[in-house]
Amino acid sequence: MTDVRHTITAAAAPQTVYALLADAARWPVNFSPTIHVEQLERPEGNSGTERIRIWALAGDTVKAWTSRRELNPEGLRISFQQEVSRPPVKSMSGAWTLKELPDGGTEITLDHSYQAIDGDPAAPAWIADVTDRNSRAELANLKSLAEQAATQPARQLTFEDTLVVEGGRVGDAYAFLYEASRWPGRLPHVSRMDLVEDEPGVQVMEMDSITAAGDRHTTKSVRVCFAGERIVYKQTVVPPLLAAHTGEWRVVAVDGGVAITSQHTVVINPEAVAGVLGDTATVADALEFARTALTGNSRITLKHARAFAQGDPALALGE
Known about the structure:
Number of domains: 2
Strand order of the largest sheet: 1-7-6-5-4-3-2
Order of helices and strands: EHHEEEEEEHEHEEEEEEHHH
Number of strands: 14
Distance between the termini: 55 Å
Largest sheet: 7 strands, antiparallel
Mean pLDDT: 93
Strand content: over 45%
Radius of gyration: 21 Å
Helix content: 25-40%
Shape: globular
Low-confidence stretches: none
CATH architecture of the largest domain: 2-Layer Sandwich
């Protein structure tokens, strides 16, 4: 068993830091390595046992595992244990521990104990490298978020659009969203798509899109697909204006058809606002700018998904 400790201090109260750690559902927005979190079991109150399913970047790959967490707000501690680890990890456990400093700040300690699978000589070094990189990234994200919590204006926004497809079927609507590799032939604003799905349901994609002004933008994302229901995603390379961007496509059967919803959550990078939108622009302006741009593309996709679900032959052929 290998034990590793990482620490950092934050100019924020321990309760502020703890709240960020306890809210696992928001980790994809708060922590750069985390792609998606599914909460499988929740404690009845603020303390107790929680089970979560996590998809996260591990080097150049996406790994998924289930962890059991013990939440202890009074003790300012959250311990975790992977129930089923993914190779080359045989087992992994650890804890977040917070200590209040005399100046009111917080010392944050992240401990890991892990064991590599037998017979793979490269496994220990790979696990050590990924654990170190992800731990440093998470601690840096946590420090920044906690220190900005009381001073930064609201810089996060969640919004969605829904379109009802009369006579459409859930399977057809989902297929359009899932088959993103065919979007260049189906969506007018997508000019290039490179999509890899080495593991069923986990897609890594790089896409070129064209704005209304004719500008070309390249984005990189990881998508986790829940067949016939929804696709969640996180942009792993975001434009300068954004600190984070996650999203979700949902398809739900309704009376007479299917409802397709596009949801986005964006976090503004305040240091980039002036450079992108001008010296007088505010974070609120940036949030509205992001909402307008993303809603425009989503509505285009929703309309073409509706046409596909209603049997448009050109879209079915990717023409």
